[in-house]
Amino acid sequence: QVQLVESGGGLVQAGGSLRLSCTASGLTFEDHAMGWFRQAPVKEREGGAWISGSGGVTYYADSVKGRFTISRDNAGNTLVLQMDSLKPEDTAMYYCAAHRYNVDAYYACRTGIASFGYWGQGTQVTVSS
User: Fold this and answer.
1) How far apart are CA 121 and CA 129, in angstroms?
2) Cα separation of 94 and 27, whole Å?
3) CA 105/CA 17 separation, integer angstroms
4) What is the pLDDT of residue 7?
5) What local confidence, expressed as pLDDT, does residue 54 receive?
6) Predicted local confidence at residue 59, as pLDDT
């Protein structure tokens, strides 16, 4: 049984930082590209950052580029999202997800949400102004 468990969310002031983690079990972690997605109230879920199975290739949405950093530790089955210079518009539920295959990060972005077969339960990030 595949499980993805996020942690690290919370309340932070604008300009602050948070570090999200996602621990995976029940799958061969390095065989899956991974992504961080977010969903704000009354908005559609959107992708923010993607990473290839090896961790060597990353890709970011324009909204987070230069502020967020995605990384992974395949030995520890852990995915991380370092979020700096947070803005109120970053407030959302954040989810980690595993792509069905080990693909390039840009390809993982282009194939869309439907290509991610496993999802965590989410962790709330709230940025106050």
Assistant:
1) 26
2) 21
3) 24
4) 98
5) 95
6) 97
